[in-house]
Specification:
By secondary structure, the protein is of the alpha+beta class. It has 4 helices and 8 strands, in the order αββαβαβββββα. It has a 5-stranded antiparallel sheet with strand order 7-6-5-4-8. The chain has a 3-stranded mixed sheet with strand order 1-2-3. It starts with a helix and ends in a 5-residue tail after the last helix.
Amino acid sequence: MTTEDKIRELVTPIADELGVEVLKVSLGGGKRTRLVQVFVDCKGGVNADDLARISRGLALQMDVEDLIQGKYNLEVTTPGFDWPLETQADFDRYLGDWIKVVFENPPAIEGENLGLEGDCFGLRDEKGGEHHFSQADVVKVIRAVNWKAISKAGKIK
């Protein structure tokens, strides 16, 4: 079992208690100070208080277990907009959110995430048209911001 797997085992119960999913645990950094990154998210996002609770709880458990020799920095964070949607859980978590589909040859297409079924996912563009794609036919799918809808809603002047 890798150190990342052990950290995931420690953080998962904390995240589950808060209704948050652990997306990834990675261990990096230099020889003197290691960097432990834990990416978490849930439908609607994770608030700062929950991130802090996860961080404090995990740090205490990691210190007790003495998983990392020497110094380490722990970063508990949510994924950015460039986090790829690849799994059923990813598409479910961001169902209804605005996504961008990137192809080998531009242009990309944006629209509302209609979900993933098997290997195919759908999106509804800003004009209401539905498009369906096989995951094998795209380079990546990421979250995006529908600036037109925000502007129309009067949130940006």
